[in-house]
Amino acid sequence: MKIHEFIIIFLKVSMFVQICLIMAKLEDSDSIYYLFSDLLFKICLGIFLITFFYFNNSTGVDSWDELIISFGGVLLLYDAWIMDLPAILKIYNVKFNPYTLN
Asked: Is 14 within 8 Å of 37 (Cβ atoms)?
């Protein structure tokens, strides 16, 4: 198995554990552990989607489809920056505005 396959499996397992903990009411979606694993998942999957099709020549996939999939990775990174990072920093009372970078 390649390294990116191990990373994706690890991320899937971590998100599955977090969802099971939330459904069992042992944790909520505002927990620092859930927010951090969600941030990590979005960042890793976003970077994977952006870079995978750039470095690997996928046969049978149109170049426009590769562009749209890569853009999905950008949207995941944007969501992590706008939604998850401020929520994590709010728990630690850090003032952060993702729109101004101040």
From this structure: yes
